[in-house]
Amino acid sequence: MKAVRLHGPADLRVDEVPRPGRPGPGQVLLRVKAVGICGSDMHSYRDGRIGDVVFEKPLIVGHEFTGVVEAVGPDAADGEFRTLRPGTRVAVDPAQPCGRCSRCEQGDPNLCENLHFTGLYPDSGALCEFMLVPSRTCFPIPDTIDDATAVMLEPLAVALHTLDLAKVRVGKSVAVIGAGPIGLCILQLAKLSGANPVLVSERLPWRLDLAGRFGAIAINCTQADPVKAVLEATAGRGADVAIEAAWSDSSVQQAAEMLRLGGRLVVVGIPADDRLTLKHGTARRKGLTIMMVRRTKHCYPRAISLVERGVVELRSLVTHRFPLALAPEAFALNARYADGIVKAVITI
Questions:
Q1: Does some domain include residue 303?
Q2: Does 308 reside within a domain?
Q3: What is the pLDDT of residues 186-235, one digit of tens each?
Q4: Is 0.70 topped by the overall pTM?
């Protein structure tokens, strides 16, 4: 079968690899339908690593994906403990927690001590025609959610976990740095939670346009000081919550400066140099609470329900579609932030 493998920084190739065999107990064989390109994928693509995880040999990439169940192994139950059957369309949580360690038992599978993650070295990803996945990571999706939109359920699940950590309440002010796919999902959820005002800082004008459509006060950070804009919008008080959803470089310090005394700083983005830069004095004097987002947990059913009911819009975030054979071109386009790209999806 065909698969897209990362051989080194910016070296993606469409390779022929063996097709997986029959699913074992608790597994399903999935025919992959669509895969999204995530910001964390771009770290791997640019640098051949993400954080301290280094790619040591060619690896199939991709972790935002959906597919159709081709075959099921014994005891194949989905993420809500229902029997899975061939032909079922599913969105797949890329995290594969063990379910047995202390963190899993205490309800934090995203912090599993033995966690495997699709597309993160050494675990193979989804940019291929067929793959084996644990059945418990699969969540059936209705026909009203198309494949490209279903890919966006993973970023939406991350955004839901972020809002849970942020403890956004009705009438609270929220500042979001970054209007990429996750930032735009966070914006929609913050509005849905009753936050007011919600301000979004971003440098790409087409992404700012989307933020404005979703009800944010949009700040072009290349033309205005976003910290000053947030302070002005909150009568000098600062935002109750600031969420960094960009690259976590100087933007973390910027988020801290936007916050009120006693505010809450939530970091979603991943820095290229694996370092978080934050002035101790800013965080200490303000008495900030700082939360780090580690993927998502228990959020897929909620994400599916929100999209099915039409209260969160994902389809407009998918701006580009490519066939599997053009995946290298899709990654290159994403790396350049060209052609008005928000989310690129590889269809298979």
A1: no
A2: no
A3: 999 999 999 999 999 999 999 999 999 999 999 999 999 999 999 999 99
A4: yes
